[in-house]
Amino acid sequence: MTEHRRRLASSDVGLLAAMKAVFLRDLRVAFRQRQDLVNPLLFFVMVVTLFPLGVSPEVSFLREAGAGILWVAALLSVLLSLDHLFRHDYDDGTLEQLVLQPQPLFLLVLAKTLAHWMLTGLPLVLLAPVLGVMVHQPGNSIAVLCLTLLIGTPALSLIGAIGAALTLGLRSAGVLLSLLIIPLYIPVLIFGTGTVAAAAEGAPVGGHLALMAAFLVLALTLAPFAAASALRISLSNS
Amino acid sequence: MWQFFHKLGSPKWFYGIATRLMPWLLAAGALLLLSGVVWGLAFAPKDYLQGNSYRIIYIHVPAAFLAQSAYIMMAVAAVVTLVWRMKLADVFVKAVAPVGLWLTFLALFTGAVWGKPTWGTWWVWDARLTSMLILLFLYGGVIALGRAISDEKSAARATAVLVLVGVVNIPIIKYSVEWWNTLHQPATFKLTEKPSMPPEMWVPLLLSVLGLYLIFGWLACIRMQSEILIRESRTRWVRELVMAGRN
Amino acid sequence: MAFESLSAFIAMEGHGPYVWTCYAVFFLCLVALMLQSLRRRRALLDEYRRALAQRDRAARDNARTAATFTRVDVPQD
Question: Yes or no: is domain B20-186+194-246 CATH 1.20.120?
Fold first, then answer.
């Protein structure tokens, strides 16, 4: 039995190959349902639009608050998309097969989370400069903002994966997911907007970015374990 | 050692011990808390900077202290739940989370009311108040998740994972909030400025912290007993306990 | 005593309302939480006691009906 398993793990399908397969499969499935890809982006743009309408279209206000608005909107749209991370696979039973694979589950979860980031976080980063111009951010700030989003959104996806795994299969999972995850997102938000603010004041941001990268590395190493064990719990639940 | 560990996992054993322990916890806790509070309110000298409003410290600090240590205790219990699957550990998490939520709320409330005479405003986005607010959210999440999952065993394990993720995050949240705080405003506000409090001030504070600790222990015991009664309602020892209480 | 009179103690040089509100809310919440926890345990015990008593009564009733059955049977011989 163990012999069989070992052979399965080592020769038949290698770790990287399995991760790659999961990653590519998630991308392929996502591109078949394009609307799910576009929705978080639309949401992102709409939330940003609400602030000039709801608070003030003044250039001075938007210049000061713009980075924060973009960050909060990005955070919310990642949160919104998290429900899809495991939901479809859970509904059609793919997830149970994934759990039964000989490869360690946390690596497969990591692959799924990376795919999730490629599909939501990365488009947000690419869209951010346009919105940054719309909220009157100076060029330097926009560059730093995109950089912080580039480092920050993977961390958002990774932490969010824990919440998505914990709330899998529950009633009103969406609201619960937000309740669980928003407090954990606060440090990312603080460092993201703080870095942009420091850049706007002309301070060097290398240290801030390194700190954010450290946070990302921490999330990268710990979150997949937590998400994998949460997935096992949720699957044993049903 | 292992026998003790085994016993500790037995709900029946705990129920008996708790029943014997609770009167002592309550009496000693009430005595300490009340004497600390009376001493602090009436006999401790006035603070030369803040005047008499500082007397709120004798309930604010115990509440804040316990709110934080309750979360740490829950995290220890969560490890025990996940590693050894000990029933009592997860009973503890479930019983204590609402107590922690209330204590956090009380710490926030007393902090806000203290802020009015000291800072001139009810709420300041002070680093400590803000991180307590986030702690309140964390407690809320733990309770909400525990209630949302119907299966008892997976509810216990899922909340244990969430508590652990939270406890890893707490130092990061604390650090980031402090960093954010210095970024946005000069560090002017501090509730307790002087580390060199005279003993007439800190001895009553120590008393009330200890007292609230014991009362927390009492609350944990009685709430765990209720939780145990629910889970073990079909066992013989609970039936015997109920019968014994009838006459 | 840090205060000269009871009224000075209550007024706390103007900080009285803040201090006393805090203490009132704190002890109100603490006592309410303690009472609620006590009452919950008592309610559970009462509930189980009632359920057990009901079961006992049902068992006794069963026994009695069985007994009347046998008594009806007796005159036959």
Answer: yes
